[in-house]
Amino acid sequence: MSDIDTWLATFRTQAAKLSGAGLPWLAAIRQRAIERFADEGWPNNRIEGFRHTSLAFLAQQRFVAVERADAASASARAALARLRRDDQAGHWLVFVDGVHAPALSAPGALPAGARVGALSAALAEFPEKVEAAFGGAGSGASPAALNAALATDGAFVHLARGVALEAPIHLVFVAATAGGASHPRNLVVAEAGAQATVVEHYVAASQPGQEQASLTNAVTRIDAGPDARITHLKLQHEGDQAIHLATIEALQARGAAFDSHSLSFGARLARNDIVARLDGEDCEVLLNGLYHVDGRRHVDHHTRIEHAQPRGTSREFYRGILDGAARGVFAGRIVVAPGAMRTDAEQRTDSLLLSAQAEADARPELEIYADDVKCAHGATVGQIDEASLFYLRSRGLDEAHARNLLTYAFATEALARIHLAPLRQRAAAAIRARLPGGALLEELS
Predict the structure, then answer these.
(1) What mean pLDDT comes out for the span 361-388?
(2) Same-domain status, 271 and 412
(3) Range of the domain at 25
(4) Residue 353: inside a domain, yes or no?
């Protein structure tokens, strides 16, 4: 049986058990999505967007379809405790192997007009709202189609007009089953003037060094209404044997602002597809990313910003730290449509190589069909500056600590763009944990 046949068999087995299985519109989307995945399969390097990150090897992998995980397991609770040790604030929704775990969640008190809950519950209570935000089978690459076919849970966040959440919404996804596959789908709908910060955490239930292979294939869709402000932070630190595939799609109406921070510190392979469409005038978007890879790990950020209307502003910054024989990929495209006058767009990617075997591929692109625009892009790939290293050593640091401090300083420029202090501190702790001498870095920073 081929890998495609296995996924088709999984779909036939699970279709009637998936959340919202009785909804005709959702059944139609799922059927079209699985048919699309069957036609296309996993993307390989013959496809333009996957030239540097082929997923064809997944055809030889076998993952377990987890129908109901043990959300109360000691390992899942321990993973959540480690995550919340230094920060209890916010509205917390927890999913174990892609399934909502109410016993571990703590959504807290919400203002009128705000809903933060599981997608499975939303499909049962108000499917018409979910239908408007769910998306179709043709969106994204073929992994996103597989998600549309098999997603049974995830988060559903709906903010009515003018609602502002002060505390962040934390969505925690714990990979708990060895060889398990999960397909969470998160929907965020912010009506006019609404504001919120949404944080996605992807973690392994196992202790470091004991990780098992797993597949996370996540999709997050964000619909920001007029003058809405949404900040989205994704912190991925799954185990070193994990495969992490993610699609983030944001649609912005007039005057909406969207900030995306993608931080990738785990997984054997991580692929992040991020698309922002500025569909109204005077929109703003920030795409900010930081990743650290070592060993033979591989991370890819593939982004697209679509300026569809006049006076849009976009800023895009990605930084990568690569060690061992790791590989980092950035492919970003900014598209300025005809008529999108007075667009102001800037794109930059920088990579720091810590070993001779590490490899970074950078492909920034501008595609401009309008006049009276200001657009720029740039890319750098390099090693630690020897003059800076000499300066620190002359001030009493040994070479190892000097290198670590310069590496951490390279990362902090990306972290500084995270304006909410607790989230910035959480991200800083995550990158320090990946670097030698992390405790000393905390004292020196």
Answers:
(1) 94
(2) no
(3) 3-280
(4) no
Give CA–CA dist 344/319, Å, rounded. Answer: 21
Domain closes at, from 253, 280, 307:
280
Q: Is the pLDDT of residue 1 over 50?
A: no
Tokens of 217: 């294939």
Q: Is 6 exposed, middle or buried (0-12, 13-18, 19+ CB in 10 A)?
A: middle
C-alpha to C-alpha distance for 168 and 335, rounded to whole angstroms:
31
* Residue 272 and residue 418 in one domain: no
**Closest Cα to residue 225, out of 258, 185, 273, 274?**
258
Q: With a threshold of 0.85, does the pTM exceed it? A: yes
What is the Cα Rg of the chain in Å?
A: 21
Q: Which of 234, 259, 280 is the last residue of a domain?
A: 280
Q: Quick one: pLDDT at residue 443?
A: 64
The tokens for 252 are: 């912005």
The one-letter code for the residue type at 328 is G
Q: Does residue 432 have a pLDDT over 90? A: no
Q: What percent of the chain has pLDDT over 70?
A: 95
Number of compact structural domains in the chain: 2
In a domain, 20, yes or no: yes
AA letter at 77: R
The pLDDT of residue 352 is 96
The CA distance from 422 to 428, in Å, is 10
Sign of CA dihedral 81, 86, 89, 91: negative
Decide: residue 4, CB within 10 A, 0-12 exposed, 13-18 middle, 19+ buried. Answer: middle
Give domain status of residue 206, yes or no: yes
**Residue range 235-255: mean pLDDT, rounded:** 95
* 92 closest CA partner among 123, 124, 76, 116: 116
- 20/206: higher pLDDT: 20
Chain-centroid distance, C-alpha 249? 10
Residue 339 lies in a domain: no
pLDDT at 82: 80
**Together in a domain, 10 and 129:** yes
Using CA atoms, how far residue 190 sits from 66, 198, 306, in Å, is 31, 12, 20
- How far, in Å, CA of 235 to CA of 243, rounded? 15
